[in-house]
Amino acid sequence: MIDAQRIDMIIQEGEGLTVEFKEHFSPRIVEDVTAFANTKGGVIILGVRDDKTVVGEELTNDLKARINSLGRNCTPPIQAKIRQAKNLVVIDVPQGDEKPYGCGAGYFRRLDGTTQKMSNHELRIMFREHELISFEEMIHREVAWQDISRNKIKIFLKEADIGIKKIVAHDILTSLNVAHNDEITNAGVLFFAENPRKFILQAQMTMIAFKGKDRIHIFDRQDIQDDLLTQFNGALFFLKKHLNRRSEIKGVNRKDIYEIPIEALREAVANAIIHRDYGMRGTSLMVEVYDDRVEIVNPGGLPAGLEKKDFGKISVRRNERIADLFFRMDKVELAGTGIRRMREAMIAAGLPPPRIRQTTFFNISFKRPTFDSRPAAVERNKSTDKVTERVTDKVTKKVTENQSLILKGMKKDDQITARILSEIVEISERKIKENIKLLKNKGLLKRIGPARGGHWKVEDG
Question: What is the pTM of this model?
Answer without folding.
Answer: 0.56
